[in-house]
Amino acid sequence: MTQLATGSDSKPPSKEEQKVDYSLSPGLMQRLASLNVSIAFSSYQSGLLYFLGRDPKGGAHLHQSAMPKPMGLCLDGQGRLTLTGGFQIMRFENVLDANQRVNETFDACYVPRTIHVTGSLDAHDVGIDENGRILFVNTRYNCLATVSSRHSFEPVWRPPFIDALVDEDRCHLNGLAMDGNKPRYVTAVSRSNTIDGWRDRRADGGVVIDIDRNEIVCQGLSMPHSPRIYQDELWILNSGTGELGVIELPEEQGRMGKFKPRTFCPGFLRGLALHGNHAFVGLSKPRYKRFEGLALDQRLKDADSEAWCGIQIIDLTTGTCVDWFRIDGAVSELYDVEIIPGFTCPMAVSPASPEAENLITIERGEVAE
């Protein structure tokens, strides 16, 4: 088994946190080196934001930072990392110059510089538009929203089947696909227009909605998540069946597209990042009632497999898993995955940690010698 070093800026792990085992494929670090990337992923279950990278000797290093219910992740074109979580939306800045390192190991250090206190909105996916504005899926209020300087949020758009802006998670809006710097598609577990109605439609009520057309362009999905536009295709995770695939979009308005699976992964899928010829897919174990009773259960039985928690790297040409990172034990659910290009071993600082209190940075040249 490949050796893994871990680090954290939060308090020492509890007994529960210690009951976690990590393993990875022998070729994973070499693959990250060849792609010149590292991986960020979130788990609201553990309350941690993770960075998987390579230490100065080329070994695997997993950094963990305590965050309030971390969910959606987005790295924008300015190198800033935005995270939805708990009752806040945080924007992190990498405070290191190219030649700087933390503890002679970390070549990127993401510090929360802007924190929007939104209240508990159950915010899921997040993106950044061309003006640097934060856009996030406000699941509790069934809409796409942005932050407000005065209020909890400002609504931007809501699905055509939702007739009011209400505090009722009706359709479980969750995923956001950005087309460059423009929001283009969202996913929802159903088109329900009654409070909590999505829970009765988990098996086949899932939809993809075109924001520009303001209409559903694909239906019949099972708890879809993480839509992403990549290489002129709309990729999606059909979570309830464990499938990564693409949506063949309709050319004419009013027609429905089709989901075309490309590969099966053994888990409830959430979190998708695409880079080069690879898909980085997040897997969770379907232990809770909202994940059970889906087609995934039978798919796992047919494959004589157990559900995973971790990340699988899928070759887009062959549809096969070429490398993987696995978590066993107390942590069984992930939410989002993001690629960090150009850095070998990133870290983040928790907003409530002593590191956040004591880490002081200043622009070079601002202080007289």
Architecture overview:
This protein is mainly β and 369 residues long. Helix content is 7%, strand content 46%. The protein has 4 helices and 27 strands. It has helices spanning 15-18, 28-35, 295-302, 354-358; strands at 4-8, 20-24, 37-43, 48-54, 60-66, 70-75, 81-85, 88-94, 108-117, 123-128, 134-138, 143-146, 154-157, 173-179, 182-188, 206-210, 215-221, 224-230, 233-238, 243-248, 258-264, 268-275, 278-284, 310-315, 321-329, 337-341, 346-348. It has a 5-stranded mixed beta sheet. Strand 11 (134-138) and strand 12 (143-146) form a beta hairpin. The model has no long low-confidence stretch (mean pLDDT 93).
Comma- or semicolon-separated keywords:
369 residues; mainly beta; five-stranded mixed beta sheet; five-stranded antiparallel beta sheet
Averaging pLDDT over every residue, what do you get? 93
Class based on secondary structure composition and strand pairing: mainly beta
Q: What is the rounded distance between the termini?
A: 50 Å
Kindly provide the radius of gyration, computed on alpha-carbon positions and rounded to a whole number of angstroms: 20 Å
Q: Enumerate how many helices there are, as a single number.
A: 4
- Order of strands in the sheet with the most strands? 1-5-4-3-26
Q: What's the total count of β strands?
A: 27
Oligomeric nature of the chains: single chain
Described by strand count, sense and barrel closure, the largest sheet is: 5 strands, mixed
Q: Which regions are unreliable across 5 or more consecutive residues at pLDDT < 50? A: none
> What is the helix content?
under 10%
